[in-house]
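#lab-general

N.A. 3:47 PM
ok so I finally got the sequence cleaned up, no stray characters, all 493 residues accounted for. can someone with queue access submit it? mine expired

B.Y. 3:52 PM
send it over

N.A. 3:53 PM
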Amino acid sequence: MKNYNMNQIMLDIPTAYEPDKNHVAHYINELVEDMDVTIFYTTGRPLEYDPRLMMKLVLFAYTRGVRSGRRIAEFAQENIIAMWLTQEAQPSYRTINRFRVSDLSEAMISSAFSRFTKLLHDKGYIDDVIYIDGTKILADANKFSFVWKKNTIRFDKMNTVKAQQLIQDIMAEQQSLQLPEYTDLSVEELDDVIAHLESYLAKQEQQVVATQKVSPNPAKQARRNTKKHLNKVEHIRDKKLAYQHQIETYNERNSYSKTDTDATFMRVKEDYMQNGQLKPAYNLQIATNAQFVLGYGIFQNPTDTRTLMPFVDQLKQYETLGSTIVADAGYGSESNYRQLEDEYPATTVLIPYGTMLKETSKKWQTDERKVMNWNYCAEDDYYVDPRNVRFNFKRLSKRTDKYGFVRDFKVYEAEAQTENLEDIAAALTPKGYTRKITVNPAFEYHKAKIRSEFSKEENQAIYAQRKIDVESVFGRLKAYFGFTRFSVRGSSE
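B.Y. 4:20 PM
back already:
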């Protein structure tokens, strides 16, 4: 039997242990060692620990589901593989937390994705296809700390009406106080009102001093009323400033959280009450291939449609964008198709539009209300519906959505009368108006292009892999790693 003695003096050899050859720690070590950290950290005080050491420790702890700063510090002391990666260095939890939220770690992670993608390509683990999908992750915020944009606008209008009524009351009470006429009562105009009241109050102070022996003193009562009005105007001005700050915080959103102003209230899958309650969250977008995450983005938009192009641009910047982009129908919109064709013409786009699968059904193809089932004459530019009503081109029309995207439409109007000037009943609506239809030629072009791409067998096989590839990553992220809520506040961190 081998002698076992805990009190025996031993020679300390930090590098005596090494993980198995195919252990994930070796890949983390190879990935991080390739980085040139000098380009990320050029100024500032000398670091206590090498950034590569810290990055290896954090990445390996994350693969083991350890995300708390204190737990990672314990992990570095107790896990033998973590000790091998850090060469038995033991950073404190404060050092770990400062590193995780620093600009240095963000720059290293961004660089790591491009290096990670290149490493996987070199080893033949992935091909040139990018699968994109998103999920909602709860923010580190109180779920009842909501601020709604519609309420802010409504309260601001009520506050303005209150200010207008207050100024009228002041003018009625204080006949000697002359105030200019105001229009919308902005913060600057309210400041002007406050300046007039303060000047008027100073004159009343002089009157009180001059008549201090008079009892009861009407000057004191007048001063008291002026102070009361001044306090009310200042309160209204402060509320207006608060509403302006809230509007700036919303940006293009409709809500935010008081405890994490970057978080937006969204519907998430973790709906324990089963009532569709909105919760503060972020829209996490990832790009995968062979279930490897090649890029990620954190967005404040609840819908995936408006996250696609910023995320694709980010993947291009980090050199992780493939030659084929695959996503579900939630990303299919005219604006996305147009921008992808203009900015990435060499990229194959496999993103179905919303009604693409429905259009293959018998019910859709036999629906007489669908313009796509009508006969179209390209030479004379007119449609004929199943009831033999002809729709001639009438005019062009434009629609601009709330985000500034402009769509062009062609308006067609039915021929309401025959050559004998007889009314055509089928050309009229139930209320007697002439029927009209609108067609978006640009969107129809993109839809035809998408249908053409999906008609190819190789593209069908690629799209069929989407759910297996990207959905599995979300499953492991939430179920295996237990990552259902952010631990750091703010989208930039």
